[in-house]
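User: My instructor asked us to take a sequence, write out its structure as tokens, and then describe one feature of it. I'm not sure where to start. Here is the sequence I was given:
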Amino acid sequence: MNDMEQLRQSLVKIDDLLASCMRCGNCQAVCPVYTQTRREADVARGKIVLLQNLAYELIKDPKAVEERLTRCLLCGACEHNCSTGVKTLDIFIEGRIALTQYLKLSPLKKLIFQSLLTHPKLFSRAIHTGSLFQGLVLRRQQNAQKTATAPLLKHFLGARHMPTLPKQQLHDKYGVLTGDKSKKINVIFYPGCMTDKVYTQIGDAVIKLLNHYGVGVIMPDDFSCCGLPALASGDKVGYDTLVKNNISVFERLLTDDVQYIVSACPSCTETLHKWWVRLSENYSEKDREILKKISEKAIDIHAFLYSVLKVDTKDPVAKENAVKITYHESCHLKKSLGVSKEVLELLKLNDNYTLVEMAEADKCCGCGGSFTLTQPELSLKIGTRKGLNIMKSGAEEVVAACPACMMQIADILGRNNSNIKVKHSLEIIAENLK
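Assistant: Let's start with the prediction itself. The structure tokens for your sequence are:
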């Protein structure tokens, strides 16, 4: 399909999706960007007005359209709280696809999304090489978050605190896992880029939990990125390539012995469950059938443990000197996947910790993937509000169920010299299993 035909299809989709918006303004109260800027153009309703005339606006001032459409975290708060069920995320994704078709992708993004991420072995080698030489660029900080700064790249990254890369990626550590047909349940574990290449301790916790509860684990070494970063940038070409790469892997793995596909990354789970099917209208019938199976089987790991395995979470009494933790509700997990109670219940399994509430626990942390790079000032302001709420809670550790949220929160706490540790919820849940 050529660019103009893709642009035409996107514009038609946007027109169809816009019809249900009543301009009520409920989205205004929950938008984290609007909370900071107080600009009508930054709220979902304002962007919808823009998208109603997208074809005209693209011709008139495409850069202005780009600036407005990228001032969105794609957190889903507007859609989650919409009384008329407007699919705002679908609208904004289609808007970004149309914008990219018109303006074209930047050379850097094209290199990342269409050349690096689409070749998983090349991507893994690049990350491995980065882990070997990261000491030349990164300065490790002596803090609870175990982050690093990059003084030589301050012009580009500012004072950002980043996680360091592990010596060994998850798929290298475990190799190819093929499941166990003697088990009642076998699952495909889709780790996603962050768990496979940055926060490998999350993957350790997933495998430990699944083994503990008698679940067979299938994990190949050739999964590609789920495609959400490319999609959020409007790169349908890179996104389609990544999805089709993964289709070929899942086609090989989806046997009758596989009941579920689990992930510890809500963004990946949402993409497998929702976006792959929703944006597959131009795929072959065979590919659409495979994507439908993937969508039906994809489930967040917490929901799998709580609702499928029905792990017993009877209220234990926390130990006298239990560590105080507070829980940040990740947007894609709660708002898009509807998973919240499950995490809180499962955290009770470890009586070495006691939960304290933070204010605005389900407010976005300001990450939004590339939003931290395209809108660094806004991201920092939103993140700082989250960081203050965490510090005011009195917690010694903050728990999130999303790797991207962990990265953003660690950055904010690191900048503020906080001694609060950042962990994934699964680390807590799996910590004291025998």
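For the description part of your assignment, you could build on this observation: The mean pLDDT is 92. Try explaining in your own words what that tells you about the chain.
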